[in-house]
Amino acid sequence: MKSIRSRLFMILMITTGVVWMSAIAWIYLSTRAEVERVLDARLIEAARMVSSLITSQEIDPKRAAQIPAVEPTMHASYDRQLSCQIWALDGTLVGRSDAAPATPLSDAQDGFSETLIGGETWRVYAVVNTDLGMRVLVGDNMRVRDRLVADVIRGLALPALLILPILAGLIWLSVRKGLGPLNNMAHALETRSASDLSALPDVDTPSEIKPVIRSLNGLFGRVHAARERERDFTAFAAHELRTPIAGLKTQAQVALGSEDPGIRANALRQIVVGVDRTSRLMRQLTDLTNAERGETDSDNHRVNLGKLASRLADDIRQHYPGAALLEIDEKLHDIDLDIDPSLFMLATRNLMENAVLHSRVESPVHCGMRLEGDGVALTIDDSGPGIPEDELPKVCERFYRGRNKTAMGSGLGLAIADLAAKRLGGSLSLKNRPEGGFRAELHLNAAPSSTTPRGEFRHNDGELSPLPVVADAKGDRLAHER
User: Fold this and answer.
1) Fewer CB within 10 Å, N side or C side of the chain?
2) Which tens digit of pLDDT belongs to each residue from 294-350?
3) Burial class (CB in 10 A: 0-12, 13-18, 19+), 136
């Protein structure tokens, strides 16, 4: 049963039925016990009255036997329900009422007993009159008692059966009314357009629906924010791509229209720079998308930080031959971590590129490390102008380019490094150095372990293998740890 309304209706009907049947059963048992108590008291009273009349000799024993049978009962159909017998102690029948059987109602000498006579059970009370040598027996046919109790229960059950359809209708209307706010919310969601991400109204709504509305409004807010980021991302990416492409076209026109070899050579160099910038931007856009989606090339492996940093430094030197040099601290070769190598290289490459592009050529970029608690911090120091303090909170935003931007910069490098650091379970911190320049710290929570031989890395199964390579956006081969 998939309908909440039908399920709730059935639950209420079954619950109501169970309660009603339990009440009838309780009434039946209590009524039966009360009826038996009253009728037993009546048997005692009738037997003692007959015995008293016989003892006082105010009435003939034969007539005395008729007295209990003609006393009025609680209902006309139960008149003459009592049967009375008077027996001599020698076994002679002295008298009996009209409805009483000819055989003794009971063989008991005194008190209550039950006897089966003619296939029917009798409840009998006996009183022995020793002065007159007689025994008075007054009994009830149990069938009559059962009929009395059944009539009482029938009087309760018949109205219940008549009321049941009305009750079912009222329950159905109540359930429908109670689920009205949920139906209204479903209708509001069904009729709104796909582009409408406004919050649902949360005024005068039942407390049971408020968590659903708040969750939906939270979801709408997150979807709206994601769409805004996507829209901004597309707009910024289009703008960043349009600029180098326009420059490429301009330089190509200059090269085609000029006869001066120097001007032509300079235009071709500018074309190469523009292609490099466009290639880097495309690679960064791809890296950012993959990092956001959690799409990396590998899972956690045991990797050597010095090995990865050296490979990245070699590749950056090839791409930026005129830029500042990269120095790798030898201590990094002594650090092995269980991390995702693709995410680590993604973060480190962008931090290195950012440092190289902003540093002076004569001042190398230094890549080092320090141990902190159970983790490691990879430090990258450059000698550039740094970042103004008011821009530090914004530099990890996508496409943000501060006052100290470079021609090759796209405003994505630090954003990619920050996202990759978070995917690694670590963090990225940025600060200006007191002595000048800028420092980026990649904090990794993975605990360092013993090193492996340089030039090799160790899989989780302990097997040594060389480092594979993959091609970057320009077709150059860049080593990746796996």
Assistant:
1) N
2) 555 556 778 888 888 888 888 877 777 666 678 888 888 888 888 888 788 888 888
3) buried
Model pTM score:
0.44
Among the listed residues 419, 435, 300, 296, the one whose alpha carbon sits nearest the alpha carbon of residue 363: 435
CA angle 53, 56, 62 (to 5 degrees): 45
Per the prediction, the chain carries an average pLDDT of 76
For the stretch 7-54, pLDDT in tens is 888 888 888 888 888 888 888 888 888 888 888 898 888 888 888 888
Q: Do 143 and 135 form a contact (C-beta atoms < 8 A)? A: no
Task: Identify whether the C-beta of residue 106 lies closer than 8 Å to the C-beta of residue 137.
Answer: yes
**Which residues, in sequence order, are CB contacts of 453 under 8 Å at separation 6+?**
464
pLDDT per residue over 196-205, tens digit each?
Answer: 888 887 777 7
How large is the average pLDDT for residues 62-71?
61
Asked if 267 and 248 touch (Cβ cutoff 8 Å), the reply is no
Residue with the two structure tokens 């059970």: 121
| Three-class SS state of 299 | coil
The residue type of 468 is: P
What SS3 class is residue 372?
strand
Q: How many residues does the chain have?
A: 482
Find out if CATH 3.40.50.1170 is the number for domain 4-165: no
By percentage, how much of the chain surpasses pLDDT 90?
A: 0
Instruction: With CA atoms as reference, report the closest residue to 449 among 321, 314, 233, 303.
Output: 303
End-to-end Cα, the chain, rounded Å: 51
296-479 CATH fold: Heat Shock Protein 90 (3.30.565)
The amino acid at residue 44 is I
CA 206 to chain centre: 20
User: Residue 144: pLDDT above 50?
Assistant: yes
Find out whether 435 and 383 touch, Cβ atoms under 8 Å.
no
pLDDT, mean of residues 434-453 = 73
Amino acid (one-letter) located at 397 = E
